[in-house]
């Protein structure tokens, strides 16, 4: 290239330079096929036609594939900053914002140049000699925030409280109520904590019952349902700093700001300047969870955890409430099936060549990128080595890799996972496997998700002596926790007695003093297979309802068995509660006895079909109250009947929504038949499986999803609001022809029933939608903790505190 003017080379390729438009996705923080960044040794190359970014080792691939020769090269170099920069104590559950956790991030300087491939002809930037089109394009790229920045580590924080729509027009009732400065008690029970003052009538009532059984008795929200009075303030959070007071709006279902709070409090004789704080706000209580005993135990805080580096020991940066994803993917890529599919048997070049125009939206490419990032060891080095400083110390840490592009792709078909909110690791795991299965459809030999899949068979024995068999496929074995099988009942009784005494004396019980039930995993497995009564089961043999017995077993044993512990259960009155329990999990389990036997010699199947008179009795009937309300709004009577039937008479709002979305159905004017609901679109099985993992029966889950238009959150609310919607009356299944394995069942991996524990995903928090997830994985003969980007040798893995347990089959 000697004798050729670099500027002439650039001018000859100006047609391959584009000016970015507002709708263009510009990548400038991370390589599309690796985790290289501008801080990497070779910097980052941005294609000035597609605006995709590539590391030094991969930019040639893009040139060969696209033919685009002009790139903006960005290189970041670390600046020297004082080492004694003080750390601040966090006051906000956030990272990278004022009051949040201090990242202590170093500062970097940037340098730029224009590079033209294939010979890497380089021109400096900025330079007035560059063509105007190039200067404008580079300026636009540098001014753009960058697609990756939206998922950056410092991008998450709690939502700012909004001013309530009810605050400025709140009508207060002058009923002579004067609230004293202390000595408060719920007006309907003896609760003296978690008390809320209704700002309309001055009633003092206890708050909601929490998932873990703590909190109040729901009297405050019941009062709202009876009266419609919208705002309440939590007593004990009112101080001279009124902005810190906890005000809740029931109709808006959120913590809110009340600009007139001082005036509203004065109405009931409250001088806020004289009150002192005695209760935590909701946000503070959530922050407090970070320092309690269980958090420290699961994260092994306070212990000298030896950091580990190298292949298979790469941490994942928290993108903001993404620990559910990090913990799950660390375990998944520790399996042979996924590491072989996306690492050992597929290199980055092959995945990139197979990918479409934009590799950032291709699941196969991003799974391969994630696998190579986690397993190659390229990014698992002490941060000090990357910076070229002194040798690593025992407290050295790695930077980790940010799974931004993978999260963006896997969440594209799921509105919740695309948010920055915390999610359920189980729900994500099931969604992930579903997406992998879809991506490998038609190529079962390549599909690694099959290593988790197995068959489940339910046997229903009628009092007639005849049987029915039902089969399904699943990825997880969801287990109830039988607390009555606890092995430490005497300790529990003594602890409860001590707790009652301390409470009566007005003393607090520390987390170290609490004794939790210990239930053997064997008891949980036994509860899955144990006989279960089904009342009101319609027997096609007896032509009447009777009580049947259901048992369950597995038709195949997967390569990897995932056990989900149902720690969230429903108490009487449909009140959700989290079980505070330890599970004693052995290193090796044998589930050979759980294999189902199928139809046995001498067994007779229940006859198929339902008698005509029974079918007639099942003809759907619309709730006339719902129908009449809809008719009064001007809708057709027949249409209103169909709306009520197809939402299972859930309510006027549900029926209205159905009606508005089905007005143009071609059969909307057809007469109602007993099969009216059968014409509805099928319910997504993955959503049914999600509700099953919450502890609901399949038929109830199906019914709730049908009534709520397939929305999981609304379906859960429907179940809570319809406690009489029992599954038993609908479990009238007669018989099944699936007495032999189906082709899909027969093609699944199968083997012996002995398994070894190799992975644990633990969760701490009051619900799966808050708190923190951590993974512990058995690697190279030792347990390793993966806590976001922190990877180290585990000293005391919390085997008894798991939410998901991963077992690998032991091949004889």
Automatic annotation (TrEMBL):
The record ties this protein, via PROSITE patterns, to: UBA, USP_1, USP_2, USP_3, ZF_UBP
UBP-type domain location, by residue?
A: 162-272
Q: Name one GO molecular function term.
A: cysteine-type deubiquitinase activity
GO biological process terms, alphabetically, are: cell communication; protein deubiquitination; proteolysis; signaling
E.C. number, please? Answer: 3.4.19.12
Q: Locate the region Disordered.
A: 600-619, 723-748
Q: What class of enzyme is it?
A: hydrolase
| Keywords recorded for this protein, A-Z | Hydrolase, Metal-binding, Protease, Repeat, Thiol protease, Ubl conjugation pathway, Zinc, Zinc-finger
Protein task: Recognizes and hydrolyzes the peptide bond at the C-terminal Gly of ubiquitin. Involved in the processing of poly-ubiquitin precursors as well as that of ubiquitinated proteins.
Q: What is this protein called?
A: Ubiquitin carboxyl-terminal hydrolase
Native organism is: Rubroshorea leprosula
């Amino acid at each position: 290239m000697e004798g050729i003017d670099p500027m002439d080379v650039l001018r000859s390729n100006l047609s391959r330079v584009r000016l970015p438009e507002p709708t263009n996705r510009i990548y400038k923080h991370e390589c599309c096929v690796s985790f290289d960044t501008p801080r990497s040794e070779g910097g980052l190359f941005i294609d000035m036609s597609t605006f995709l970014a590539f590391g030094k080792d991969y930019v040639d691939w893009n040139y060969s594939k696209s033919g685009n020769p002009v790139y903006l090269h960005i290189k970041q170099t670390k600046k020297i900053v004082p080492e004694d920069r003080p750390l601040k104590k966090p006051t906000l559950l956030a990272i990278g914002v004022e009051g949040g956790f201090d990242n202590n991030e170093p500062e970097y300087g940037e340098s730029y140049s224009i590079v033209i491939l294939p010979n890497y002809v380089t021109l400096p930037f900025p330079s007035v000699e560059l063509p105007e089109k190039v200067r404008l394009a580079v300026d636009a790229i540098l001014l753009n925030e960058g697609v990756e920045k939206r998922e950056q580590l410092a991008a998450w924080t709690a939502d700012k409280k909004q001013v309530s729509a009810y605050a400025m027009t709140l009508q207060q009732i002058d009923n002579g109520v004067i609230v004293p400065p202390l000595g408060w008690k719920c007006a309907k029970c003896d609760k003296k904590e978690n008390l809320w003052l209704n700002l309309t009538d001055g009633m003092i009532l206890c708050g909601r019952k929490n998932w873990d059984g703590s909190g109040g008795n729901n009297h405050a929200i019941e009062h709202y349902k009876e009266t419609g009075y919208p705002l309440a303030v939590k007593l004990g959070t009112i101080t001279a700093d009124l902005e810190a007071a906890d005000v809740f709006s029931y109709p808006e279902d959120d913590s809110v700001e009340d600009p007139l709070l001082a005036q509203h409090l004065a109405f009931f004789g409250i001088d806020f300047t004289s009150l002192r704080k005695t209760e935590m706000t909701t946000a503070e209580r959530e922050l407090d969870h970070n320092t309690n005993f269980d958090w420290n135990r699961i994260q092994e805080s306070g212990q000298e955890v030896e950091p580990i580096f190298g292949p298979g020991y790469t941490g994942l940066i928290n993108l903001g409430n993404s620990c559910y994803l990090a913990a799950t993917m660390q375990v998944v890529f520790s399996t042979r099936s996924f590491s072989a599919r996306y690492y050992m048997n597929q290199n980055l070049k092959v995945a990139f060549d197979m990918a479409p125009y934009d590799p950032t939206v291709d699941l196969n490419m991003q799974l391969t990128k994630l696998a190579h990032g986690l397993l190659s060891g390229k990014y698992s080095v002490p941060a000090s080595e990357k910076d070229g400083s002194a040798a690593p110390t025992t407290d050295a840490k790695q930077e980790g890799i940010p799974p931004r592009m993978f999260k963006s792709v896997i969440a594209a078909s799921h509105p919740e996972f695309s948010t920055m909110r915390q999610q359920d690791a189980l729900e994500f795991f099931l969604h992930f496997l579903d997406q992998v299965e879809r991506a490998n459809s038609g190529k079962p030999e390549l599909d690694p998700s099959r290593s988790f899949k197995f068959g489940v068979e339910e046997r229903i024995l009628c009092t007639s002596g005849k049987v029915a068999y039902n089969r399904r496929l699943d990825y997880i074995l969801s287990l109830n926790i039988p607390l009555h099988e606890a092995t430490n009942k005497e300790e529990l009784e003594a602890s409860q007695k001590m707790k009652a005494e301390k409470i009566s004396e007005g003393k607090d019980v520390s987390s170290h003093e609490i004794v939790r039930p210990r239930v053997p995993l064997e008891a949980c497995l036994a509860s899955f297979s144990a006989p279960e009564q089904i009342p009101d089961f319609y027997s096609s043999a007896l032509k009447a309802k009777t009580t049947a017995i259901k048992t369950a077993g597995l038709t195949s044993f997967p390569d990897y068995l995932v056990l989900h512990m149902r720690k969230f259960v429903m108490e009487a009155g449909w009140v959700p509660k989290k079980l505070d329990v330890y599970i004693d999990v052995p290193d090796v389990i044998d589930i050979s006895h759980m294999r189902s036997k199928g139809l046995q010699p001498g067994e007779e199947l229940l006859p198929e079909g339902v008698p005509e008179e029974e079918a007639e009795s099942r003809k759907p009937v619309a709730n006339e109250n719902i129908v009449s309300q809809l008719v009064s709004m001007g809708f057709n009577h027949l249409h209103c009947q169909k709306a009520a039937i197809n939402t299972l008479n859930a309510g006027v709002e549900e029926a209205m929504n159905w009606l508005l979305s089905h007005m143009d159905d071609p059969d909307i004017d057809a007469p109602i038949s007993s099969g009216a609901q059968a014409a509805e679109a099928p319910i997504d099985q993955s959503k049914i499986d999600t509700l099953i993992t919450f502890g609901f029966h399949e038929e109830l889950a199906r019914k709730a999803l049908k009534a709520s238009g397939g929305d999981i959150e609304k379906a859960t609310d429907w179940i809570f609001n319809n406690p009489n919607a029992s599954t038993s009356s609908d479990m009238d299944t007669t018989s099944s022809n699936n007495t032999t394995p189906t082709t899909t069942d027969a093609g699944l991996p199968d083997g012996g029933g002995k398994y070894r524990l190799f992975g644990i995903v633990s969760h701490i928090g009051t619900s799966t939608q808050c708190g923190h997830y951590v993974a512990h994985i058995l690697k190279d003969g030792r347990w390793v903790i993966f806590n976001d980007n922190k990877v180290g040798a585990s000293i005391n893995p919390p085997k008894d505190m798991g939410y998901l347990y991963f077992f690998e089959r032991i091949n004889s």
